Amino acid sequence: MSILSTFLWKNRQLRHQIYLLRARYHLAASGFATGLGASAWLLHGLVRSLRPQTCVEIGSATGWSACHIGLALRENFAGRLYAIDPHGPTAWNDQGPIDTYPILRRNLRRCGLEDHVEIVRSTSVEAARGWTRPVDFLFIDGDHSYPGVKGDWDLFSPFLTDFGIAVFHDTTWERRGPNRPDMGVPRFVEELRRKGHPVITIDRDCGLSLVQNRVGGLPLVPE
Ligand SMILES: C[S@@+](CC[C@H](N)C(=O)[O-])C[C@H]1O[C@@H](n2cnc3c(N)ncnc32)[C@H](O)[C@@H]1O
Known about the structure:
Elements: H1 3-29, H2 40-50, E1 54-58, H3 64-76, E2 80-84, H4 101-110, E3 117-120, H5 124-128, E4 135-140, H6 146-156, E5 160-169, H7 173-176, H8 185-195, E6 199-202, E7 208-211
Parallel strand pairs: 1-2, 1-4, 2-3, 4-5
Antiparallel strand pairs: 5-7, 6-7
Helix pairs in contact: 1-3, 2-3
The structure holds S-adenosylmethionine.
């Protein structure tokens, strides 16, 4: 490597690290964390490790989870997140009936993630129409009712790649959260577990469960 190319490479690395620091500062200082809390870093770590080409998020709100996933994609220098949310009033808005779209855009811009996260302003049902891409990483945090969460799994799990991972939020709500009769996520993910899907649950921030699509799990030694 010539002195000039070494200098240019180091310069590019330095600028990249400064962008990442800026994004991390925004995440730490801006106070827009949701109920996902520090568990958003689990999404970040999974995406860093999986190096997915295509990520889908159902339920972006103001972008706490989308920014953590997007930051990991930026650090990977690859991959794209499709961040699906109608950004209108639903029964599952943390922020009340406000339009979260401009706030999401602002947070993505402040974190420098606009090239890695594509905002899809629609419901998951609308977004799934005509969907064809394989999905390596799926985060389900939208309509938390039983029919809603089951519908999201049914729509997008057929696209999960072999070692792809789906993450559900609020899976230990019934053990940890306030009583909410319309909450259906724990019941649905428990059904997947009983059917034999591999499920690992982190009992923090009302529960994050990692689920794989193949019943019984994928063989680690080729069959
Ligand atoms: C709990 S918030 C998501 C929080 C976000 N994942 C985070 O941690 O930053 C739930 C979001 O799901 C969205 N939502 C509700 N029904 C939806 C649907 N059918 N399709 C997509 N998003 C939906 C709501 O608009 C709301 O913004």
